[in-house]
Amino acid sequence: MSIHPQIIEKDGRKVFVVLPYEEFLQMQEEIENYEDLRTLREEKATAHAEPTRSLEEVLVEMGS
């Protein structure tokens, strides 16, 4: 992804960044995807220690 930021300075210090709206939306989506992936990995690591059941066991429980 390529971004085209515009830096706004005040008293010689960089204080704001302005992005084209489409680039902002792309960055926002990338951040959301990263957060989802991080959550998924955390849950997977936690669930790894949980007991599991086979598909057959679940089907029997459901009465199929």
Task: Provide an overview of this structure.
The chain is an alpha+beta fold and 64 residues long. It is built from two helices and two strands. The protein has helices at 21-47, 55-62, and strands spanning 6-10, 13-18. A hairpin with a 2-residue loop joins strand 1 (6-10) and strand 2. The model has no long low-confidence stretch (mean pLDDT 93).
What are the main properties of this structure?
55% helix; 64 residues; alpha+beta; elongated; 17% strand; 2 strands
Entry summary:
The protein has helices at residues 21-47, 55-62; strands spanning 6-10, 13-18. The protein has 64 residues and is α+β, with helices and mostly antiparallel strands.
- Sheet with most strands: 2 strands, antiparallel
Radius of gyration: 23 Å
What structural class should be given to the helix and strand makeup?
Answer: alpha+beta
Mean pLDDT: 93
Query: Could you name the ranges where pLDDT drops below 50 across 5 or more consecutive residues?
Result: none
Q: How much of the sequence is in beta strands? A: 15-25%
> Percentage of helical residues?
40-55%
Number of strands: 2
- Quote the distance from N terminus to C terminus: 49 Å
Give the neighbour order of strands across the main sheet.
1-2
How many distinct helices? 2
The shape, in one word, is: elongated
Count of domains:
1
* SSE order, one letter for each helix or strand: EEHH
